UniProtKB/TrEMBL annotation:
Active site: 108 (proton acceptor)
Family note: Belongs to the ribose 5-phosphate isomerase family.
Gene3D superfamilies (UniProt xref): 3.30.70.260, 3.40.50.1360
Record pathway: Carbohydrate degradation; pentose phosphate pathway; D-ribose 5-phosphate from D-ribulose 5-phosphate (non-oxidative stage): step 1/1
GO biological process: pentose-phosphate shunt, non-oxidative branch
GO molecular function annotation: ribose-5-phosphate isomerase activity
Name of the top EC class for this enzyme: isomerase
Positions in coiled-coil regions: none
Protein source organism: Gluconobacter cerinus
Task performed by this protein: Catalyzes the reversible conversion of ribose-5-phosphate to ribulose 5-phosphate.
EC number in record: 5.3.1.6
Lineage: Bacteria, Pseudomonadati, Pseudomonadota, Alphaproteobacteria, Acetobacterales
Protein name: Ribose-5-phosphate isomerase A
Length: 230
């Protein structure tokens, strides 16, 4: 990871964190870009910003607590004012996303769906013409019968379906106790159709295509921060 890329992630993250106002319920994304956003929100809380956060992963919950951000959950709030999160790919135009290479796609999608505004923060390596160009589509599945679920995902056109593993080669376990299958499709011509096919497979909990969900995307590059709307 180049230091430029890190600097761009940080710039986009801080720009989004500065959109947050006192009184808001804020969805806290997961990943390296979202971590910069959590750190910036922590600074703002220390300066007097009053917010509560709903984290999208156990990892982000830990980081938010460390940063001093008070946390809440859906038992207290059914709707969030804003959610801010990174992405693995962003398609300009509809602002379709692939998310979940960090393993948190299910909670991320629940939080994004419950938010009035969903702001996506990326560096210049994330925009693509078609979803699937560079990233696999992560699919969270229940462990029971995953081999069978994997075959059905192949039948949807995935060229490769790989169970995600951790650094030690053990099967990755999500915060929800599920597995992730990384499905390589290559450029996806019709993401809505693919999403329908994947949603219909028994055993699939959720996939990492976030279609028509982003309210805006902040793309930070050498040239500054571009703001995209659908
Ligand atoms: O979806 C995600 C985690 O599940 C992340 O937002 C995505 O992987 C981007 O991560 P990073 O900001 O580290 O590039």
């Amino acid at each position: 990871m180049s230091s430029d890329m890190e600097a761009h992630k940080r710039t986009a993250a801080r720009r989004a964190a500065d959109m947050v106002k006192s009184g808001m319920v804020v969805g806290l994304g997961t990943g390296s870009t979202a971590t910069y956003m959590i750190e910036r929100l922590g600074e703002r809380v220390a300066e007097g910003l009053h917010i509560v956060g709903i984290p999208t992963s156990e990892d982000s919950a830990r980081k938010a607590k460390k940063a001093g951000i008070p946390l809440t959950d859906f038992s207290a709030h059914r709707q969030l004012d804003i959610a801010i999160d990174g992405a693995d790919e962003v398609q300009r135009g509809p602002l379709h996303l692939i998310k979940g290479l960090g393993g948190a796609l299910l909670r991320e999608k629940i939080v994004a769906q419950a938010s009035k505004i969903f702001v996506v923060i990326v560096d210049g390596s994330k925009p693509v013409d078609h979803l699937g160009e560079r990233a696999p589509v992560p699919v969270e599945v229940i462990p029971f019968g995953w081999e069978c679920t994997a075959e059905r995902l192949s039948a949807c056109g995935a060229k490769g379906v790989k169970p995600r593993t951790d650094r030690d080669g053990n099967l990755f376990v999500s915060d929800n106790g599920n597995m992730i299958l990384d499905c390589t499709f290559g450029p996806i011509e019709d993401p809505e159709d693919l999403a329908r096919q994947i949603d219909a497979i028994v055993g699939v909990v959720e996939h990492g295509m976030f279609l028509n969900m982003a309210s805006e995307v902040l793309v930070a590059t050498e040239q500054g921060v571009e703001r995209w709307e659908p």
